[in-house]
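Per your request, structure below.
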């Protein structure tokens, strides 16, 4: 069951964990944010962003999915919602799981927001060497990241990918809101 968080002076945001095809395999769409963005440039992310006034999490997530990668989805394509995640940069993000019967290569990244679209295969998501947990002096909570080929995707995106893996792929009741982010994501 989805756990909501109070905003407590944070802004609301929503992202999509969009299940697309890579030939015959299912993948999650991840993006590398554009270098020209003010915040979190060149970081791995899920399509999404700040919600507009009066928008539900699902409406905001679907709007951002269209704006960032050109994919039009409706509420009928939503499979569910994962737990809210509060970021150090002042957002409460609601992850929305979306089914898209489309090959990820058909997506059209908006160059103002997205530098690159990549498929995160379910096989890659299920790697035994993920997640990675590390401690930092600045936090009492462990920082979570997921291995992605020869790179890592850190929380919050990494935490949401991990929860998707645990809930959707393995049927486990796993929570992730307690995991922290690396220092570079705190701003």
């Amino acid at each position: 069951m989805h756990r909501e968080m109070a905003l407590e002076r944070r802004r609301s945001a929503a992202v999509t964990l969009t299940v697309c095809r890579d030939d015959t395999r299912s993948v999650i769409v991840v993006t590398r944010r554009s270098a020209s963005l003010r915040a979190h440039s060149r970081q791995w992310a899920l399509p999404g962003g700040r919600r507009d006034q009066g928008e539900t999490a699902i409406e905001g997530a679907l709007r951002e999915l269209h704006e960032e990668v050109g994919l039009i989805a409706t509420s009928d394509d939503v499979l569910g919602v994962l737990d809210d995640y509060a970021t150090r940069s002042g957002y409460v993000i609601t992850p929305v799981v979306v089914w898209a019967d489309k090959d990820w290569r058909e997506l059209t990244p908006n160059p103002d927001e997205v530098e690159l679209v990549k498929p995160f295969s379910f096989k890659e998501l299920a790697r035994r060497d993920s997640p990675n947990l590390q401690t930092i002096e600045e936090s009492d909570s462990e920082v979570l990241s997921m291995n992605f080929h020869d790179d890592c995707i850190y929380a919050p995106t990494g935490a949401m990918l991990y929860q998707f893996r645990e809930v959707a792929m393995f049927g486990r009741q796993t929570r992730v809101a307690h995991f922290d982010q690396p220092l570079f994501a705190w701003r």
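The mean pLDDT is 92.

Regards,
D.
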